[in-house]
C-alpha cells in the first residue's frame, strides 16, 4: 500500500494513557492508496474478557475481537482505515485581468504532472473507483457523470470573497488531452470574468483525479479601474455666484 507502518508490540498502556502511532506516506504516483492501522489490545495479566457466545453476535463485534478457546475475549481490535491522497506542489499563479464593467473570456491551460495510465496501479485505481461515491471530495460535485475522469472546484479564501466572486466568475472544462507516455494531462478551461468594480481577489482551482491525486492552481482575479462615464463641465456665471449642473445616476440593482 506504499505505507511504512511501524509494527509495535508489547507496549504497556495505563488507563486513559495516550499512544501516538507514526504513519509515513510516500506515494510514487498520483493515485489513491489505502491501508488499515490495526491495534490489538490484550490484558496484561493474560486473563480474558467475559463473552457470551450464545447471545446474538454482531458481525462488527466478531470482526474486532479475538476469541479464546473457552469462548472469552482474548483481545480487542481497533481498526483505522487510511486513505492516502497525493497532492502535487502548488502550481504557478494564473492571472485573469479585466477592466471593471467589462467582460473577458479566455482559455486557461493547466498541466497535471504524474498522471499514470489506467494500466498501472490498476488494483488501487479500481478500488478507489468502487468507493468513489463515498469520498467527501465528490460530494461537492453533484451532477457530474461517474464517467468524468477529473473533478474540479474553484475554492475561495473566505466566504466574503466567495460571495463577491461567485456571480462574477464562470469556469468550465472545454478540452482534455492525456499523454500516457509523459504522464501529463492538459486541461483547458474557459474562464469568464465580468467584474462590476475594481477588485483584487484570489482563489484556488482544485483538480482531483477520480482515482486519487490532487492538483492546486492559485488564481488571481484582477479588475482595474473602469472607463470614465462622462465629463461634467461647470461654467461659472460670475464671481461669487453658484453654477449648478444636474445629472442622473441609475442603480443597477434594488
Automatic annotation (TrEMBL):
Pfam families assigned: Ig_CFAP47
All copies of domain CFAP47-like immunoglobulin-like, residue ranges: 87-224
Gene: Cfap47_0
Bilayer-crossing regions: none
Natural source organism: Smithornis capensis
Source domain of life: Eukaryota
Name under which the protein is recorded: CFA47 protein
GO cellular component: cilium
One annotated GO biological process: sperm axoneme assembly
Amino acid at each position: 500500500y506504499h505505507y511504512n507502518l511501524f509494527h509495535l508490540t508489547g507496549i504497556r498502556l495505563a488507563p486513559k494513557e495516550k499512544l501516538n502511532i507514526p504513519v509515513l506516506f510516500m506515494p510514487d504516483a498520483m493515485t489513491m492508496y489505502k491501508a488499515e492501522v490495526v491495534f490489538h489490545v490484550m490484558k496484561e495479566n493474560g486473563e480474558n474478557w467475559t463473552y457470551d457466545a450464545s447471545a446474538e453476535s454482531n458481525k462488527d463485534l466478531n470482526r474486532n475481537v479475538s476469541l479464546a478457546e473457552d469462548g472469552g475475549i482474548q483481545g480487542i481490535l481497533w481498526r483505522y482505515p487510511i486513505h492516502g491522497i497525493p497532492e502535487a506542489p502548488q502550481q504557478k499563479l494564473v492571472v485573469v485581468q479585466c477592466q471593471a464593467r467589462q467582460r473577458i473570456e479566455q482559455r486557461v491551460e493547466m498541466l497535471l504532472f504524474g498522471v499514470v495510465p489506467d494500466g498501472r496501479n490498476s488494483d488501487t485505481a479500481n478500488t478507489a473507483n468502487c468507493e468513489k461515491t463515498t469520498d467527501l471530495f465528490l460530494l461537492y460535485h453533484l451532477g457530474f457523470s461517474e464517467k468524468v475522469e477529473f473533478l474540479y472546484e474553484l475554492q475561495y479564501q473566505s466566504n466574503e470573497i466567495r460571495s463577491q466572486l461567485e456571480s462574477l466568475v464562470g469556469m468550465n472544462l472545454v478540452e482534455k488531452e492525456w499523454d500516457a507516455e509523459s504522464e501529463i494531462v492538459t486541461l483547458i478551461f474557459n474562464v469568464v470574468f465580468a467584474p462590476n468594480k475594481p477588485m483584487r481577489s484570489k482563489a484556488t482551482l482544485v483538480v482531483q483525479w477520480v482515482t486519487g491525486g490532487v492538483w492546486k492552481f492559485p488564481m488571481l482575479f484582477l479588475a482595474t479601474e473602469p472607463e470614465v462615464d462622462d465629463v461634467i463641465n461647470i461654467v461659472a456665471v460670475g464671481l461669487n455666484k453658484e453654477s449648478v449642473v444636474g445629472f442622473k445616476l441609475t442603480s443597477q440593482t434594488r
